[in-house]
Design goal:
This protein is an alpha/beta fold and about 450 residues long. The chain has three domains: about 25-245, 2-enoyl-CoA Hydratase, Chain A, domain 1 (Alpha-Beta Complex), CATH 3.90.226; about 250-385, no CATH class; about 395-450, OB fold (Dihydrolipoamide Acetyltransferase, E2P), CATH 2.40.50. About 45% of the residues lie in helices and about 20% in strands. It has 16 helices and 18 strands. It has helices at about 5-25, 50-65, 85-95, 115-120, 145-150, 150-170, 175-185, 190-195, 210-215, 245-250, 255-275, 280-295, 300-315, 325-340, 360-365, 365-385; strands spanning about 40-45, 70-75, 80, 100-105, 110, 125, 130-135, 190, 205, 220, 225-230, 235-240, 350, 400-405, 415, 420-425, 435-440, 445-450. A hairpin with a 2-residue loop joins strand 17 and strand 18 (about 445-450). Helix 6 runs antiparallel to helix 7 (about 175-185), helix 11 packs parallel to helix 13 (about 300-315) and helix 13 runs parallel beside helix 16. It is elongated, with a radius of gyration of 37 Å. Mean pLDDT is about 80; it is low at about 1-10, about 10-30, about 140-145, about 145-150 and about 350-355.
């Protein structure tokens, strides 16, 4: 290389390094987003709010803080849930050092009952245009007030406590506390546009990215003080729930709990019908254990559970008593009724949207009827097997035919019957090699007659 060319190259080298550094800062990162773009951890809360949901949210907030992320974004669609889990989530959102965005979506999503508390507790709250929020008043499964089942004093106590809770959450975030109180006392619910006008949420956004972009530059209160939110062009980092959290969320579905309950009772019943099978009984016990865990997650009517168990007991009894089908019919009726009244939303520990948490008709009717039919068939087979003569031991020899191994008479002899050698005795002589039939068994001696004679 000529001398003057080397001088030019040396002179341009610093400029090239500067340009390369600028390009690295402005260019795309390994995930395709510009370097320096805000990083947002995304969580999805679909279905009832349970202990698994609470663990999931708290783990997400802890991860966002540990990894130094810019924000946490929660996509919310829930009919409500456990009050204890809701309080844990709200407490975590209010105290989070990382800004939190809650977007009620996607299409036709709801932030009902417990979901209302969570949305109000967010640093930034947004809703899909077709979503709704509210209906935070505790109700029974039939839509009646708690007073109808728990009494006026208890209803008033629960209502006042819930009102104080929701007002404090709304006030902490500068949201409409008066409307929040009406959501509890009057069970009011509003759509997205109305929620923005009432000061319940901040924006209407068609998706999570739009919500983050609209929130960009907004000052948000966090547990570490006020921070300017950065969300425009963010890198989204989804967080999947753990197996334990997924299990707790799964068994929060009343349809899953009902099926587990029926499968568990079926397994136990099969073990009664065929003792020693072990596998059906073990599986039944496991399903019942998981179902009982689910009953701690969702409000289950104890009386309905007892009805289901009583129904299974009657179906089992059908195989052991002469009830001419009445026990089986009664068992089927008990199972259907127990399934119909399986969910109990009168408990003050739960906040669910009326009608949102219900068993599917495909669970209420076909499943118990199919279970009753299966167990009825098993009962019929067991009853039929009791009418069949025993095929084992000495009684099984009666009526069997064999062959005389020698002369058989009143003084005895030997015979080959049922694959075995037996001492034999006959009132009339039977010659060697003749066919004979067993008419009785006395100890280790068979009483036989010639096959052409009447026994």
């Amino acid at each position: 290389m000529p001398l003057h060319a080397r001088h030019v190259a040396r002179a341009l080298a610093p400029a090239a390094l500067v340009l390369a550094g600028i390009g690295a800062l402005a260019g795309p990162g390994p995930d395709g987003a510009p370097q320096g773009a805000p990083r947002v951890l995304t969580l999805e809360m679909n279905g009832p709010i349970t202990g698994g949901t609470s663990e999931y949210v708290l783990a997400g907030l802890a991860k966002a803080k540990a990894d130094g992320l810019d924000a946490v974004a929660i996509t919310l669609d829930t009919p409500g849930g456990m009050l204890d889990a809701t309080r844990e989530i709200v407490r975590a959102l209010l105290g989070s050092e990382v800004p939190v965005v809650v977007w009620v979506g996607p299409t036709a999503a709801q932030a009902a009952s417990a979901g209302t508390f969570i949305t109000l507790a967010a640093g930034v709250a947004a809703m899909h245009p077709t979503s709704n929020i509210g209906a935070a008043h505790p109700v029974t499964g039939s839509g009646k007030d708690v007073a109808a089942e728990a009494g006026k004093d208890m209803a008033k106590k629960v209502e006042n406590d819930t009102v104080a809770f929701i007002r404090s959450v709304a006030a902490a975030r500068g949201r409409n506390a008066a409307w929040a109180e009406k959501a509890v006392r009057e069970s009011v619910s509003v759509v997205a546009d109305e929620a923005v006008k009432l000061g319940i949420v901040d924006f209407v956004a068609k998706d999570l990215r739009e919500a983050l972009a609209l929130a960009d530059g907004k000052k948000v209160k966090t547990g570490a003080g006020e921070r300017v939110f950065r969300g425009k062009g963010a890198v989204l980092l989804p967080l999947e729930p753990t197996v334990r959290q997924q299990l707790l969320m799964l068994i929060a579905n009343p349809n899953v709990v009902a099926i587990l309950m029926l499968l568990g009772t079926l397994g136990i019943a099969i073990e009664f019908y065929h003792p020693g099978g072990i596998v059906p009984g073990a599986l039944g016990a496991f399903f019942l254990f998981v179902a009982f865990l689910g009953m701690r997650v969702i409000p289950v009517n104890v009386g309905a559970v007892l009805l289901v168990l009583a129904g299974v007991g009657l179906l089992v009894a059908e195989a052991y008593v002469t009830a001419h089908g009445l026990a089986g019919l009664g068992g089927a009726v008990c199972i259907v009724l127990g399934t119909l009244f399986f969910i109990d939303r009168s408990s003050p520990d739960y906040h669910f949207d009326p009608g949102a948490l219900a068993l599917s008709p495909w669970i209420v009717w076909p499943t118990p009827i199919a279970l009753a039919a299966l167990m009825g068939f098993m009962a019929w087979k067991v009853a039929g097997s009791r009418r069949v003569p025993l095929q084992l031991g000495a009684p099984a020899l009666v009526g069997e035919e064999g062959q005389a191994l020698g002369d058989v008479g009143p003084d005895g002899g030997e015979a080959f019957v049922h694959g075995e050698y037996w001492k034999a005795r006959s009132s009339l002589p039977i010659p060697k090699g003749a066919r004979l039939r067993v008419t009785a068994v006395e100890g280790l001696t068979v009483i036989v007659v010639a096959v052409d004679e009447k026994g």
